[in-house]
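Below is a filled-in request sheet from our internal design queue. Each sheet records the structural input a requester submitted and the sequence that came back. We keep these sheets so that new team members can see what a complete request looks like end to end.

REQUESTER: design group, bay 2
PRIORITY: normal
MODE: inverse folding
CHAIN LENGTH: 383
BACKBONE (tokenized):
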């Protein structure tokens, strides 16, 4: 019996389906056992990915860690495990840039298990009329109610900054990988966030997306979060009010909804012996059977496009998927060079501090660009 150690994140969406899949009878009959450990999502930023890969055979990771993993030579590329035709099929079946986000230095470094991006979360019972579609409408709702919250804790201030810049037509570092964002667009983004942050309910300012959504389900002081990572679990919660999810805001009707890709993938560490049984299990997790049936039934959030459009899946989960699929298909993919994660953390801290001080935009944007350049340095590589 081959026994593998595996690590994922501590939330029903990240753990339940993987643990249940590891208990399937066919896995044991194939001579494979997988023991899934879990840690807080923030733990993946606290521990270098190379350290985790030294202790685990399979590691669930977020795509911005790929550059660090490649520099640490701690993951096996998918190209060394699966045939080209299999990878091409995964690319076609995965929603939006889910698989592409794990492509770096010419190879793929994780299987796209779970798809997510920043979307709009609302308490429909607290809104008068439909949820906003445009950023101007979000701003107006904030001015009228004081119940529009920004997700700013941890890395999320920077992530929202990237998303709004994308909505304004300038996906960060895409035109020129050495320039995060132009001063003009950066100023527009900062001024919008600064105004919204000033009225954002204090009770959620230190909360991560999971805690914000839990708070929204239990209290009536937050009616809308314009950008927060979508968690299907809160669309049909066991307790509390259901939260409705919508596409991320746009600048104008028909524009791209600005949103920064999240989700997770399964990385295979260098220490892992990849057997035929393991390959079959991993590909089963990517299959229509698992992604449309098994994973949603175990509180997971699938990465397969079919699942996001499936009528049964949407009926069970409050149309979470169909309501936000357009945002995920067009989600912005962050830079993945080694050093990006550190930039993201420091940029978020800078933005939070600047909002508290009502600091002038120009100086903040210049400091963001300096931070980005410092953490890109000689580690630039691919995006």
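RETURNED SEQUENCE:
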């Amino acid at each position: 019996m081959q026994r593998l150690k595996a690590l994922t994140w501590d939330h029903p969406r990240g753990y339940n389906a993987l643990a249940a899949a590891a208990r399937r009878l066919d896995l044991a009959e194939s001579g494979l056992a997988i023991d899934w450990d879990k840690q807080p999502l923030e733990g993946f930023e606290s521990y270098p990915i190379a350290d985790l890969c030294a202790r685990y055979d399979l590691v669930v990771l977020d795509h911005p860690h790929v550059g660090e993993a490649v520099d640490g030579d701690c993951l096996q590329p998918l190209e060394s495990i699966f045939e080209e035709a299999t990878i091409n099929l995964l690319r076609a079946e995965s929603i939006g840039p889910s698989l592409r986000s794990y492509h770096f230095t010419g190879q793929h470094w994780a299987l796209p298990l779970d798809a997510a991006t920043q979307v709009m979360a609302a308490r429909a019972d607290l809104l008068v009329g439909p949820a906003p579609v445009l950023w101007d409408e979000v701003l107006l709702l904030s001015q009228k109610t004081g119940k529009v919250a920004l997700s700013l804790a941890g890395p999320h201030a920077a992530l929202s900054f990237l998303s709004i810049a994308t909505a304004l037509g300038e996906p960060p570092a895409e035109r020129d990988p050495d320039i995060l964002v132009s001063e003009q667009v950066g100023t527009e983004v900062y001024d919008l966030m600064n105004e919204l942050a000033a009225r954002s309910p204090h009770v959620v300012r230190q909360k991560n997306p999971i805690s914000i959504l839990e708070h929204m389900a239990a209290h009536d002081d937050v009616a809308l979060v314009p950008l927060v990572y979508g968690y299907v679990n809160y669309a049909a919660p066991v307790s509390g009010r259901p939260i409705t999810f919508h596409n991320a805001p746009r600048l104008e009707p028909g524009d791209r909804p600005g949103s920064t890709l999240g989700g997770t993938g399964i990385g295979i560490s260098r220490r892992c012996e990849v057997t035929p049984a393991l390959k079959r299990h991993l590909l089963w997790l990517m299959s229509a059977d698992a992604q449309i049936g098994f994973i949603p039934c175990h509180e997971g959030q699938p990465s397969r496009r079919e699942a996001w459009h499936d009528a049964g899946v949407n009926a069970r989960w409050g149309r979470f998927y169909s309501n936000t699929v357009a945002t995920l298909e067009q989600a912005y993919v962050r830079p993945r060079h080694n050093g990006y994660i550190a930039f993201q953390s420091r940029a978020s801290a800078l933005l939070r501090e600047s909002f508290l001080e009502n600091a002038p935009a120009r100086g903040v944007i210049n400091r963001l660009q300096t931070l980005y350049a410092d953490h890109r340095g000689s580690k630039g590589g691919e995006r």
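SHEET NOTES:
- The CA atoms of residues 119 and 227 lie 5 Å apart.
- The domain at 118-260+334-379 is CATH 3.40.190.10 (D-Maltodextrin-Binding Protein; domain 2).
FILED BY: M.R.
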